[in-house]
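Entry:
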Amino acid sequence: MIEKETAMALTTHLRELRKRLIVCVIATAIGFALCYNYSVELYGLLTKPLIPALPPGDAHMVFTGVVEPFFIYMKVGLFGGLILASPVILFEIWGFVAPGLYKGERAWPSIWLVARKGLCRATASVLAKVAPTTSAVVRPGPTVAAMASISAHFSPACWRVCWLRWGRRSRWAREASSGTTPP
């Protein structure tokens, strides 16, 4: 069956894009409002993998700026809102892009979604092998104290490592609790 091709003016495309962007912003704002109400609980959930890995007696987070705790809760709410709004955002992106694709080109996103799962698992396995070796480099010594900064914990690299080690104690924490000295 031949699809009916309709040409749209540039201003019509821009109006449609504006409408879809407004929907995405509204969905993100609603998600932010929901997640900001629970940002303390979400913060606790995100710091859960790090706290057991800290030295005994120092299992708490520190902040290095006056407004850092406020902005951390804002970031947690915003990223949570983006995650909650992601189905709407992806639907709006697809709704804007799909009419401009040929029928054969519309199959590529579904193939990409299937491949994405394998690529994420491959990345996670590589990071799982690399993360324990890096802990030996950054392990505190006799003159250096381990202090977990709030802003450092919420960097994207730290999120990836914490995601890989969710619920498990790091090698450094296991060695510290068993009394063995690391190399």
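The longest helix spans residues 108-138.
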